[in-house]
Specification:
19 strands; alpha/beta; Immunoglobulin-like; 11 helices; six-stranded mixed beta sheet
């Protein structure tokens, strides 16, 4: 397709106005209008001829596009003008894609070098699922800037938006690097477990109950026992994937932030010799892997976690926790990733947790509600601000009350900012393991 550029339209309008004025002033000046139109049309045709052929424009085959929720990616198209004909100096492109992909800009401009151009689009997916690239428009102008040529490419390319596995791996490398100087706690094998490790000289500050009196008498030196943390524990990641978990937090659904933290904790558990399992639920149980062992199990957990869909159902804690309790045959650490928003659902959850705590260790993981905190702390400039602040403070108070009741029942709570959920829950797991509470 060939279109006149804004420059051509402006010249056409300006010439028509001048021709009208000249025609009014001089009777023979009317011919100036048609002559101007003919000259401009001729220039437009010549400009289009020198702009480059539409049939010569080729789109290179696309490589598989890795897309992960919450991670910024780059989408690049390679276009080339084949043959030895005229070529433009720059091209402009526009891309139509399914909204789930989260394009930062729908149009871009690239210079043509050696007959080709690279069209780059940045994107940041906000939700998992199947997205698609639909249409690519490429447009360029001639050397005079009077005529546009445009070619449309129907893409029809499916782009699955998956869990950010690379982000989990990067964070795991940082946290578990042997020579890391910064970050969260490094995993230690020595601790307050019950598995005997070795005898060592007693030093001031050590627990006197660890002194081995028989060996001390035999060696005529005060010796103490060192213990290591136990292995082969069951750690179950219970993910609440109900309606509230689908709400976005800083551009990413709460559920996906929980999934990233759960996968990071699963990697830590499998790496330390424990078993990890995935349990997802909303109004019913969606995924239940049971405890898995070995580092290779992380691939299974990643694949199943990517299948957790966004739900509009309310969370049924009673059904989920009762079902989980019935399937666990030995004492386990149950890490519940959820949020307390409904006081009625929280009451039912507390009742179910009480039965689960009789045999298992429970760790609740929730994100700080920074929006409610900001509303509660906002300066009351208008009457509406006072109402918002009171309502927000009431919701925070109910949330803290639920957390306090769970602590008194014996559950452990991790409340972290959305960017620190993974490291904080990992530190809590290592602390529970070191204290031999598993």
């Amino acid at each position: 397709m060939i279109y006149p550029t804004p420059r051509a339209v402006i010249l056409m309008g300006a010439g028509a106005a001048v021709a009208l004025v000249v025609g009014v002033l001089t009777p023979s000046g009317w011919i100036l209008g048609p002559a101007w139109i003919a000259v401009l049309a001729l220039l437009l045709i010549l400009d289009a001829a020198r702009a480059g052929s539409r049939t010569a424009l080729r789109l290179a085959e696309m490589e598989p596009l890795p897309a992960a929720v919450g991670r910024t990616g780059t989408l690049a198209f390679e276009v080339e003008f084949a043959g030895d004909g005229p070529r433009p100096t720059a091209v402009k492109a526009a891309l139509a894609a399914e909204g789930r992909l989260g394009l930062a800009e729908e149009s871009t401009t690239a210079a043509v070098q050696a007959g080709g151009a690279r069209l780059v689009f940045d994107f940041r997916p906000e939700r998992r699922g199947l997205s698609s690239l639909e249409t690519l428009w490429v447009r360029w102008s001639g050397p005079l800037g009077l005529a546009f040529k445009q070619k449309v490419f129907d893409l029809g390319v499916a782009v699955p938006v998956l869990t950010d596995i690379q982000g989990v791996r990067d964070q795991a490398v940082k946290l578990f690097a042997r020579d890391a100087l910064f970050g969260a706690k490094a995993q230690v094998q020595l601790g307050e477990g019950s598995e005997f490790q070795a005898l060592s000289d007693y030093r001031p500050g050590m627990d006197r109950r660890a002194i081995d009196w028989k060996q001390s008498a035999r060696h005529a030196s005060l010796l103490a026992k060192e213990f290591r943390t136990e292995r082969n524990h069951n750690v179950i990641m219970a993910l609440d994937c109900g309606r509230t978990a689908s709400e976005p937090v800083d551009g990413m659904p709460r559920m996906d932030r929980f999934i990233h933290a759960a996968l990071l904790l699963s990697y830590a558990c499998l790496r330390s010799g424990d078993r990890a399992g995935l349990f997802a639920f909303d109004s019913e149980v969606r995924i239940d892997t049971g405890p898995l062992a070995g580092l290779n199990a992380i691939r299974t957990l990643q694949t199943l976690a990517a299948r957790i869909d966004y739900s509009t159902q309310e969370t049924n804690y009673t059904l989920a926790l009762s079902s989980l309790s019935g399937k666990l045959k030995r004492r386990s650490l149950v890490v519940v990733f959820t949020d307390f928003t409904d006081s009625t659902a929280a009451e039912l959850m507390i009742e179910s947790v009480g039965r689960l705590l009789r045999r298992h260790l429970i760790l609740f993981v929730m994100m700080r509600d920074e929006e409610l905190e900001s509303l509660a702390a906002a300066a009351p400039d208008e009457p509406e601000d006072v109402a918002r602040s009171v309502v927000a403070a009431g919701l925070l108070r109910e949330r803290n009350l639920v957390a306090t009741r769970l602590r008194r029942m014996g559950a452990h709570i991790v409340e972290a900012a959305h960017g620190q959920v993974g490291p904080d829950v990992l530190n809590a797991y290592l602390d529970l393991k070191r204290r031999d509470l598993l």
